[in-house]
Design a protein that fits this description.
Rossmann fold, 361 residues, globular, seven-stranded mixed sheet, NYN domain-containing protein, Nucleotidyltransferase, domain 5, NYN
């Protein structure tokens, strides 16, 4: 692989939290970023255990999505299994490169599986990692155990033992070294639209303050975001203000009304195809969309979404809509699956034994 062609559009970084020192992850991500655009960063482990609590602040700072895997039985590799299952599921999406960060697990079968699907696979871990995993990857980066000391007043170059090295790419990446504490770069619009947590927080905040004309007071929306979603900040995405961040997401639009800045979700994103466009049904249409967002924001639904990588069983979704008094026939369709397929904010995935649904981002 030529060093000048190292540019992937959608990189998935999957981290085995049980076997990686949290202090190393920034330098690892800096290396990964030289390969292209990071679209997914997930870390797996039992985050209620004391030894993994160090990941909380770092996960927030680096926008790592924590995938909580309870360690019910000591010694069982439930974290490894969850990581592997997620990787296979993600391989059916638009990811073209997978970076597996683990120090002592054998993910060789997973790496081979991903490569047979046309994905590039890079491993990150210790030099003692099993050889079969190293060979199964397109390339393997060796992460030294030594954590570099705090910088002194006099600038000194790190010793080789303090650097992140790899078996064949060291010279390729030498020109792209990043500082140990890099500033948070602006997250690009396409990546913002893939951040489900961010989009759901924005939608819920806008919906909470929605007026009869469909618009929400921007100041009230920001106040709600800051109070109800304190861990989500525009600064985490490289933006100084919420307005700057919202301007990068084409799912929303702002407008001045009576000297007040207002915001709403773009109508083009809120359309049920089969509904006629008279005033009565348009009101009904908006209520359905509001109720759908409310369903996906319920704590019990959030747990199911986390478990299924953002997807919900259609049966559960239908039950939630029924409990709100909806019937698919009132929209001119036979079932809730057909209804979901006609709603622009939803996407449907048909599998041999089950139908899944998710919010479109």
């Amino acid at each position: 692989m030529n060093s000048t062609n190292l540019s992937f559009n959608n990189i998935a970084v999957l981290i085995d939290g049980d076997n990686i020192n949290a202090k190393n992850i920034e330098s690892i991500l800096a290396k990964v970023s030289t390969l292209g655009t990071i679209a997914c960063k997930r870390i797996y482990g039992d985050f209620k255990q004391g030894k993994l609590t160090t990941w909380d602040d770092i996960s927030l700072k680096l926008l790592l999505e924590q995938m909580h895997i309870p360690a019910y039985v000591k010694g069982k590799n439930s974290t490894d299994i969850a990581l592997a299952i997620d990787a296979v599921d993600l391989s059916y999406l638009d990811y073209d490169c997978f970076c597996i960060v683990s120090s002592d697990s054998d993910f060789s079968i997973l790496a081979k599986n991903l490569r047979t699907k046309g994905k590039k696979v890079f491993g990150f871990g210790k030099s003692t990692t099993v050889e079969s995993f190293k060979v199964a990857c397109d390339d393997y980066f060796v992460m030294d155990d030594t954590i570099p000391p705090e910088p002194s007043n006099s600038a000194t170059k790190p010793t080789p033992s303090q650097q992140l090295t790899d078996t064949s790419f060291t010279q390729k990446l030498a020109m792209n070294e990043s500082p140990s504490e890099p500033p948070i770069a602006r997250v690009m619009p396409q990546q913002l639209k893939q951040d489900t947590a961010l989009l759901n927080a924005c939608r819920q905040s806008i919906q909470h303050h929605r007026q009869n004309n469909g618009w929400s007071n921007f100041s009230n929306v920001v106040s709600y975001l800051n109070s109800d979603y304190p861990k989500i900040s525009p600064k985490n995405y490289g933006y100084s203000k919420w307005r700057s961040l919202f301007n990068q997401i084409d799912l929303f639009e702002t407008q001045m009304q009576n000297n007040l800045l207002m915001i709403r979700q773009k109508p083009s994103q809120n359309k049920i195809k089969n509904l006629p466009t008279d005033a009565t049904t348009l009101t009904q249409e908006q209520k359905v969309l509001d109720d759908i967002y409310e369903i996906f924001a319920k704590p019990i639904i959030k747990k199911l979404l986390t478990k299924n990588q953002g997807w919900l069983h259609m049966g559960q979704f239908g039950s939630e809509l029924k409990s709100k008094g909806y019937n698919p026939t009132q929209f001119g369709v036979k079932n809730f699956t057909q209804l979901a397929e006609n709603i622009a904010i939803l996407k449907v995935k048909r599998q041999p034994s089950v139908i899944m649904i998710a919010l479109r981002t």
